[in-house]
Amino acid sequence: MNQTLSSLHPNPGWKPAASPSHPIAHPVSAPGDTTDAVGKHCILELYDCDCARLDDEAFLRDTITTAARRAGATLLNLITHRFEPQGVTGLALLAESHISIHTWPESGYAAVDVFTCGDHTMPERACQVLWEELGAGRHKLTSFRRETPEALADSQREPHLASA
């Protein structure tokens, strides 16, 4: 189940694609429901990956950084840890939320979570970078909207970055 960039929704958006064969799962909503969303959350399962890449902390740091940039997100901090005898966990703190990855090189498997707030980011692009760079033989991408709580519906929700 491979996607190409052109098959991804052009707006991180908040409506499913018109095609019923679109491989991204979307939430079920009532007809006419136009609920605003605070962000989009992607859960990515990667299978049959390149085992060496799954165990390479420096490679994963570079790949997560690239994934954040391709999603249009602002990377604030990146923490990774390599386990013995194998496996890496990484967490990217984004101005818009986060990217996390946990790898099991011995199984060729990685679990990824990408959550971005606002409507200027495209978390599916971050996922695409990860499945391509890790050489996933197959993957499963589930994507859903995080609904805006009523208390935030009329408030300004742009991230504010402190000046250096």
Give a verbal description of the structure.
With 164 residues, the chain is of the alpha+beta class. It contains three helices and six strands, in the order βααββββαβ. The protein has helices spanning 51-54, 57-71, 123-133, and strands at residues 37-47, 75-82, 88-94, 97-104, 109-117, 138-147. A six-stranded antiparallel sheet has the order 2-3-4-5-1-6, covered by helices on one side. A hairpin with a 5-residue loop joins β2 (75-82) and β3 (88-94).
Features:
3 helices; globular; 164 residues; disordered N terminus; alpha+beta; 6-stranded antiparallel β-sheet
What secondary-structure arrangement, pairings included, does this model have?
Elements: E1 37-47, H1 51-54, H2 57-71, E2 75-82, E3 88-94, E4 97-104, E5 109-117, H3 123-133, E6 138-147
Antiparallel strand pairs: 1-5, 1-6, 2-3, 3-4, 4-5
Helix pairs in contact: 2-3
